[in-house]
Amino acid sequence: MHEGTAEKCAELAGSLAGGGVVVLSGAGLSTDSGIPDYRGPSGALVRTSPMTYQTFTGDPLARRRYWARSFLGWRRMARTRPNTGHRAVAQLQRRGLVTGVVTQNVDGLHQAGGADRVVELHGSLARVICLGCGDLTSRAELDRRLGLANPRFDAQATAINPDGDVDLSDHEVDRFRMVPCTACDGDTLKPDVVFFGETVPPDRVRECFDLVEKARMLLVLGSSLAVMSGRRFVIRAAKLGIPVMIVNQGPTRGETYSALTIDAPLGVVLPELVRLCPESLAVRLPAEPGPSTRPVLT
What we know:
Blueprint: H1 3-16, E1 21-25, H2 44-47, H3 53-58, H4 60-77, H5 84-94, E2 98-103, H6 109-112, E3 118-120, E4 123-130, E5 136-138, H7 139-149, H8 170-174, E6 189-193, H9 202-213, E7 217-221, H10 228-239, E8 244-247, E9 260-262, H11 266-276
Parallel strand pairs: 1-2, 1-7, 2-3, 7-8, 8-9
Antiparallel strand pairs: 4-5, 4-6
Helix pairs in contact: 1-11, 5-11
């Protein structure tokens, strides 16, 4: 570890030791699990534009394209596992230092790594909602139905995006068959995640603001804070005089509000924070949960 980074880690660990920390995490925390972020070093936005809510709801062909690609992407996402960063957050929580997590990720890896009190700001790939009747079902069940409807769909995914979408040729998309909602027979099934151009449910935003406003410190992990969806919590914390500290590989739009910024891999920094932080506040919970606790696999 670079000497300057080590010094910053020691300073951050000292701040964490006071407890009352709320974590705001982004896609950069999951890159070590094989899921790229949109704007960081692995830059999914460089390769492809994500599906927007307006296109998804307004174009049946676009919906089929999304589901064909997501059918493959989901299976790859379901095989991903929490990395050392996710487990470090859970360890800090078990020690009584982290009181809650607001995540912009939809992969369920925080929970799989042992964290609780996690608010999924942008929803979860583990659920599917019908935009026609509001029926909510599990993604695993939809995957089963899609598999039955497409027994010979053997396309290969070439790359995966943070929302579970993958790159797929038009020829492969044409072969894919979608299935309707089991409750209303409608054709507007959608993963229960917030697409680009879609609004986060107000009650969920309020829950996140409540967590931040009660925090002693806000720790941002793996987010460029490029969009207001996450940056607004940093701005609110700063306005309330709550210290903001950031660990992210690459630039962020939150440095103006940050008392300390560490530009380094989270897989290096977070285990070091666990090593440096005291264990005296530890709450005795099971050390390592099994994969069955992960929401996206149920």
